[in-house]
Amino acid sequence: MNEVQLEVAKAYPNDSGRGIARLDPDTLLHLKLSPGDIIEIEGAETTAAKVWRADRQDWNTDTVRVDGFTRQNADVGIGERVTIRKAEAEKADKLVLAPPEDASVQFGSDAAGMVKRQILKRPVVERDIVPVMSSTNHPFMRSPGQAIPLIAVETEPDGVCLITEDTEVELREEPISGFEKTGGGITYEDIGGLQNEIQRVREMVELPMKHPQIFSKLGIEPPQGVLLHGPPGTGKTLLAKAVANETSASFFSIAGPEIISKYYGESEQQLREIFEDAKEESPSIIFIDELDSIAPKREDVTGEVERRVVAQLLTMMDGLETRGQVIVIGATNRVDSVDPALRRPGRFDREIEIGVPDEVGRKEILQIHTRGMPLSDDVSLDHLADETHGFVGADIESLTKEAAMKALRRYLPEIDLDEEEVPPSLIDRMIVKRDDFSGALNE
Ligand code: ADP
Q1: For a pLDDT cut of 70, what percent of the chain falls above it?
Q2: Lower CB count within 10 Å: N or C terminus of the chain?
Q3: CA nearest 115: which of 69, 48, 171?
Q4: pTM of the model
């Protein structure tokens, strides 16, 4: 059979949540595919996607670009290999979607119709995660631009199915249990810029977790702790969550200031418990936000609590004999305020600086946060990237939300708040314009 093996790479920012795989023209030719055709992607599991042509810089790199949902559906990580072949897709008679175990979703009255319109002409395989965008013009709102992962609990027929106008789409609100893939979560596509930083974190954290034997063979110790430092709102938390998600590691999060404010003895107790749970559920990532507040320099220490928490943390980190299976990621805005004892070998001995994004990074972040928004043609993200010098990711996120709110205010006079439903024709017309962004920028 005609098939190729390719390395998995992350999706282009605009492709996320769309069920698209990018292949280069040579591969398309070799597999006798045209853009828009459906392929099977076989990793540890098999899923399907629609193919599009890759951008020129990716030609002849032997890669396939797919998003985090498709990677989970194929059960592969970035850098792993998958087998690609043309799929024999049949028209779906029926598709049943339900939220994963830990999610609760409420569907509005025409939700099934809207979901169907979103996933029209897309391939689905039973057990796949099917990301559905929620946006301001969607019946079930979460934060705009975020995809809601639903699970295809049933398809008729089996195998690769294509959603058409005639497919009966059924939505269940009852979460489905017993499905390993829970979807959701942050993936590398949700991070704009930071290409090199992501690469370094992957080498330090993902590699030892997935392939501990490489480290033991070379006789080197995988890192125990990685310190991410840089200004607030640049994506440190995001990055830690993405790594945990992409490695399927358990994620434990500790907010520095919170743990300090506990009663006598409780902070240490809590730290101990988290480390024990992390060991039990390894591979795990323990994320400690605002590490400087938990571990200020000794000479700065005023309170007894801080000193004890630092000591406890040192004990826990020194006691980890997990060889890369439990990794502690610390984040701080003030790297100089972190206790030097924590930065010694075997503790937080790797450091990565997460800086303010440049123009290219800002454009990617803008793309990410406007994914679920209907943008008017006069909105130029290039232009906005140029105008937002000095903005960090969190600022860009607020900007896009504020622009959407401005758009909403334009339509408010047309919305009758006493009516249960907003007319679909109005919802279809809603767009975010250049002026909304200019207004948001000038505030
Ligand atoms: P930090 O931990 O560095 O203070 P966060 O990761 O908590 O920052 O970022 C806060 C929010 O800002 C994120 O949830 C995200 O929406 C947005 N954000 C920050 N950096 C980025 C980025 N590089 N790409 C996309 N969104 C970002």
Answers
A1: 91
A2: N
A3: 171
A4: 0.72
